[in-house]
Amino acid sequence: MGCIGNLLWFIFGGFWSGLSWFLVGLLWCLPIVTIPIGRQCFKMAKLSLMPFGKHVEYGGGTVSLLVNILWLIFGGLIMAAEFAAIGVVLCITIIGAPFGVQMFKLAKLALMPFGAEVK
Prior knowledge:
InterPro entries: Inner_membrane_protein, UCP028777, YccF
Number of strands: 2
Number of helices: 4
Keywords: Membrane, Transmembrane, Transmembrane helix
Pfam families: YccF
C-alpha cells in the first residue's frame, strides 16, 4: 500500500501540500534568524509529498514549545485549517478516506511541527 498510496497521493494532492510547506519554508528563510524554522518546513514538505508508511513522533522541549507558539501565530493555524478542510472533503468518499486520514496527520503536524521526528 505504501508505494501505490504514495504515488496516488502525489498525483491527487501531495504535490500541492508539499508545495505549500515549501513556500512557507521559503518565507521563513527570508530573515536570517528564522532559517532553522524554514529548514524544518522543508523537512515537512518532504513528508507531505510521500506520507504513506511514515509516522511522526512528537517530542521536544522548551525551545520547541516556544517555536511552536510562534509558528501557530505566524502561519500554523492557516496551514492546519487548510489540511483539515481538504481532509474533510477527501473523507466524503470511501476511496478518498485514506487520503483524508493523511491530510489530518498533516494538519496535526502543521499545528506542532517543531520537536516532531519523522520515522
